[in-house]
Amino acid sequence: MHLQYPALFRQQAYIDGQWTTASDGATFRVTDPFNDELLAEVADLGAADTEHTVDAAHNAFPAWSKRTAGERSSVLRKWYELILQHQEDLAVLMTREQGKPLAESRGEVAYGASFIEWFAEEGKRAYGDVIPSHRSDTRILTLKQPVGVVAAITPWNFPIAMITRKVAPALAVGCTVIIKPAEDTPLCALALAQLAEEAGFPAGVVNVVPSNQPAEVGEVLTGDRRVRKLSFTGSTATGKKLMAQSAGTLKKLSLELGGNAPFIVFDDADLQGAVAGAMASKYRNGGQTCVCVNRVYVQSGIYDRFVAALGEAVAALQVGVGTEKGTDVGPLINDAAIEKVERMVADAVAKGAEVAIGGSRHEAGARCYTPTLLLNADASMDIAQEEVFGPVAPVFRFETEEEVIELSNDTPYGLAAYFYGQDHARIWRVAEALEYGMVGINTGMISTALAPFGGVKESGFGREGSKYGLEDYLVVKYLCWGGLRG
């Protein structure tokens, strides 16, 4: 792999300020999802190596937490600058191991860096309080202190942004971190560790544990009482398991889990704006995002015009290898992913859906799926009940506001929802009625470091980004100071 700065290509783990192999010498393969080309043989750490990493993070915590917020901010700021300096190399690395188009990878690098920039400043504002006392000779104060060692288990679909969104606030307030990247995409995490080292983080403050043994590593991170916080992004099933495993030590948890996002288009919507929003939210990263549109609900009065315009936009998407200019949709991450898409489309067709566009694998590559538009979808189809995590948009027709609210909320998930319309009174009603942690109104792009990202119901809890994201890595200590007689 050609990089302008070859030091970013790392295959070893990063523990306690050292690049190291697995204790038993084990490695696992990392391949390009487009053509299965071998990219790297990465250290495959197990339980013993993970325990050693917890030792390192625990030992580094006292000194790092005692640094001033300004001192920690300076190191974070340097890390941010280094990431932007090497944006192109990081984008190439991401596209090769994850598959998304290079333009999207460049965007993710900048997006990921924005969390570091934001929390480098926000970490200076972890304020406590002086509370009016219940007695004249007593004063009540609260302090906010770092929770301790933080484990961050991150997914493959955003291999840089999902790391920085978790670890930037943790580092800013004085926590030390252990990053367990997804098995499919460890190279971006290791590149971030290289730049973290260059930025000046002390040994043990930032650690990366690549592993193809997620269950073993997870058991250590959830079972060790020195790990005081676990942040996980991934499936609801895995999140529930990690939550159960963490119960024994009562860890603080942030869980960003599965979604089933509705995209509602009311009769009075700006047609072109709604189509653009649906395209951005549905087909970005090949449909492989947790906030991707999963169900498109269109009111009858605008249905035919919307479907025609959306169909034109979908048909114009270019499928291919992410490194080629002009590619809009790259490969899905692995064989299981494309097989799931095929299964869900087949189920929808068997239950009466009409394939307007696509509906099959694309000739560009074995893991490429043609951007697909399904019409006449209904609630009986699997695609209405679970994330497809691929470039497939099922369209449902609805008549009334009450009907679409009921359909949208009829799911155990509650991460993101979107709707388009102009009636201000209805905008308030619908925004308040949707049972989701995030709602996009006349926009299909909602993610930013400045806003709280997270869900409700079985999409998890905790917030990432914004001032609220800082709170998840802090504990409140109450000080009762008595005996203050004049």
TrEMBL record:
Pfam families listed in its UniProt record: Aldedh (PF00171)
Origin: domain of life: Bacteria
Aldehyde dehydrogenase domain segment(s): 19-478
Matching Gene3D superfamilies: Aldehyde Dehydrogenase, Chain A, domain 1 (3.40.605.10), Aldehyde Dehydrogenase, Chain A, domain 2 (3.40.309.10)
UniProt KW keywords: Oxidoreductase
Location of the active site: 256
Chain segments annotated as transmembrane: none
Gene Ontology MF annotations: succinate-semialdehyde dehydrogenase (NADP+) activity
Enzyme class: oxidoreductase
N-terminal signal peptide: none
Gene that produces this protein: gabD
Annotated protein name in UniProt: Succinate-semialdehyde dehydrogenase [NADP(+)] GabD
Family: Belongs to the aldehyde dehydrogenase family.
